[in-house]
Amino acid sequence: MGATLLCELGLFLLCTLLCTGHGQDAVLTIEPNWSSFFIGEFVTFKCDMKEGEDTDWYYKITKDSREFLSYRLNNDHTLQITSTGDNDEYQCFGHMKGSYDTKISNTVSITVSAEKPSATLTAVTTIIPVEGNVTLTCSVNPSSSSGWKYYWYRDEKSSEALTTQDAVFHSNGQISVSQEGLYRCRGGRGNPVYYTEDSQEVHINTTGEFGFSNNVEQIDD
C-alpha cells in the first residue's frame, strides 16, 4: 500500500512538472560578461526562455532568492552598479502568457569591487633616439580585470586622446611616440565608457635627462 502511494505520488509530481513546463532550462546571461565590476559600471541581465518568442513571456529577476524586479514584459534589464551591495547571485523566472508554464534560469554571480581601478604607465626609456621613437605601455590595476581599451594623452592639460596621427598604436596597451611631451594614459571599458584613474605622467624628451614623475615605472633593458 505504501509503495503504491509513493509510486502514485511520484507520477503525480512528474506529470505536474511536464504539464506546467516548470523547469530549469531558461538561461540568464550578463553583458558584459566580466568576472568583476566596479562601482559606476553598468551590467545588463538578459533572460532567454528557450521557447516561443520573447514577447510570449513575463519576466522577473531575483537577487539572493529575493525579488529584485517584479514580473514585466522586458526580458532584459540594465543595472548601474552603485555599491558593493550589488555583489550577489541573480536568477530569472519566466511565466508564459495565458498559461501556467513557468521556467527558472541558472544563477549568475556578480562581484563588485569598491576600489576604483588605476592605470600604470611604463616606458623602456624616456629619451627619443635620433629619427626613432619610444614605446609606452599602459596597464590597469587590478590586473585580474578585463575588457579594457587604452586612452593616451600628451601634455598636462590635454583632454583629447591621441590618435593614429600622433602615435603608432601596437597591440592593446602599447604605443610608440616620436614627439616630446608629458604623457599619461588611462583604461576604459563598457558602454557608456567607465574610466580608470589616470596614470602618473612621464616626460618623453630628446635630451639626456630622464623625465619620470613620481611612481612612474621605467623598464630595465
From TrEMBL:
Entry keyword Hydrolase: no
Gene Ontology annotations of biological process type: cell surface receptor signaling pathway; immune response
Membrane-crossing residue ranges in chain numbering: none
Cellular component, GO annotation: external side of plasma membrane
Keyword Disulfide bond: yes
InterPro entries: Ig-like_dom, Ig-like_dom_sf, Ig-like_fold, Ig_Fc_receptor, Ig_sub
Xref: Gene3D superfamilies: Immunoglobulins
Domain Ig-like: 1-109, 117-186
Gene Ontology molecular function: transmembrane signaling receptor activity
Pfam families, per the entry: Ig_2
Signal sequence range: 1-23
Keywords: Disulfide bond, Signal
SMART domains: IG
Protein name, as recorded: Ig-like domain-containing protein
Species this chain originates from: Oreochromis niloticus (Nile tilapia)
Phylogenetic lineage: Eukaryota, Metazoa, Chordata, Craniata, Vertebrata
